[in-house]
Design a protein that fits this description.
By secondary structure, this protein is mainly α. The protein has two domains: about 15-80, Winged helix-like DNA-binding domain superfamily/Winged helix DNA-binding domain (Arc Repressor Mutant, subunit A); about 85-230, GntR ligand-binding domain-like (Four Helix Bundle (Hemerythrin (Met), subunit A), Up-down Bundle), CATH 1.20.120. Helix content is about 70%, strand content about 0%. The protein is built from ten helices and two strands; from the N terminus they run H-H-H-H-E-E-H-H-H-H-H-H. A two-stranded antiparallel sheet has the order 1-2. A hairpin with a 3-residue loop joins strand 1 (about 70-75) and strand 2 (about 80). The radius of gyration is 21 Å and the shape is globular.
Length: about 240
Amino acid sequence: MTRKSEERRRPARVPKPTLAAVVTTELREDIVSGRIPPGTQMNEVELAARFATSRGPVREGMQRLVQEGLLVSSPRRGIFVPVLSDADLEDLYFARSAIERAAMLRIVARGIPAATIASLSQVLAEMELALDGGDAAGVAAADMRFHEVLVGAAGSPRLEQMYQSLLGQMRLGLNLVVDTYENRADLVSEHRAIVRLLKTGDREALLKTLDEHFDVALDNLAAASDGARHRRGGAGRSAASA
């Protein structure tokens, strides 16, 4: 065997993630999962000790999360996990609705692929299983996956990229209401109605159903965010202790 053929057969090296990438990934998951709660101030020194690295990768990782909207930088105060206000939540759903409406209209115009129907049915089965098991977090995760599949089915990389940029903040919002998912037996039927209308191509009914679906979510979020603000009572916290 020649040297060239050996090189062709040799598997390509997978690049190792940088320290900044590792810090970004772990902090992102800590934030969106709620392990680092809203209002927490990020401490560079403590985080550098936690990750056994210098402050440079920590600073770079936090700046990436600021760009994603998962952290906010306040002059002379520091970097914090955002506390989403009612106005933030309303704007988030306004942007989300615009993207999902565009995706659904394209799917209706082109016809919904059988593979998309199969994917949505699988997600709904997972949602139903989580509901039966009282797994609120599992129901919430299935809810998010359902809408991600829909946006992906539109076949627009740029639209999907726009949607992905909102996902972290969406999960921050969902953390406020995850407990309410235990009693959402109507959630499966709501999503099945969306699939049915995508199949029939009834644009007006489809958009109305989506609006009503988001109205319920916003009402739940507004009520939950009020309760969360009362529970926090302005208490601060360091991220490294999360």
